[in-house]
Amino acid sequence: MPLISVITAVHGDRAALLRAAGESVAAQQLPSGWSVEWLIQEDGVPAGAAAVAAAFPFARHSAHGDVLGPGGTRNLALARAGGDLVHVLDSDDLLLPNALASAIETLAIDSEIHWAAGQADDLMPDGTRLSFPPEIPTGPVAPGVFGDFLIAHDRLPVHPAGVTARTATVRALGGWGAYPRGEDTVLLAALSELTAGQLSPEVTWLYRRHDAQITHARDWSVLAGPTRLAARQRLAALRELRISLG
After folding, report:
1. Considering the entire predicted model, what is its pTM?
2. Domains of the chain by range and CATH?
């Protein structure tokens, strides 16, 4: 039976938000024959995540004890993944019921496509949603399109947390790396430079806005800048060396 692995890195103090994330995984309307595993990897001292995982039969929890940050924590979950496809769900975000099916249907049709991204609405603290128009045309995305956008705007045209990718491709690129912030941007910069993808016009997930999110941390602006630089450097190195996965 084909399987998709959903990876969530979490601190134990986010148990309440994590439960809502799990409920959004449980609500997925998967294509016939597909199943999902939810890999919860707890960063730091184990707290409440194991109890949340126990409420979902498709969840598998692991805690490593040390504080590795989101990149290292996701990579430990990636090592446990059994699916041909992998999707990152942050502990405070929510998948809409069409999220995984939209990506699965895209990636199952064309083996030359290595990743699929959906649109996101911001979920505000009062429960309202803010929508945003796509920043590039939706549909097939050729290698290099995201890279050109990154060079021009110092960011990617989609939030990396909305991306589903082939597990083998993510592993071939070394996963998320050890960057302190924005590790998913560095990975997606390489993934989208080396392989073709698909950008859906559908809203497939909700990006939760709240005071405790990592982008509100005092060190975010200090650490995010060097990580964006690392993403641009990786992109430049790939183009200079003309590295290809083909």
Report:
1. 0.94
2. 3-141+159-178+196-213 (3.90.550.10)
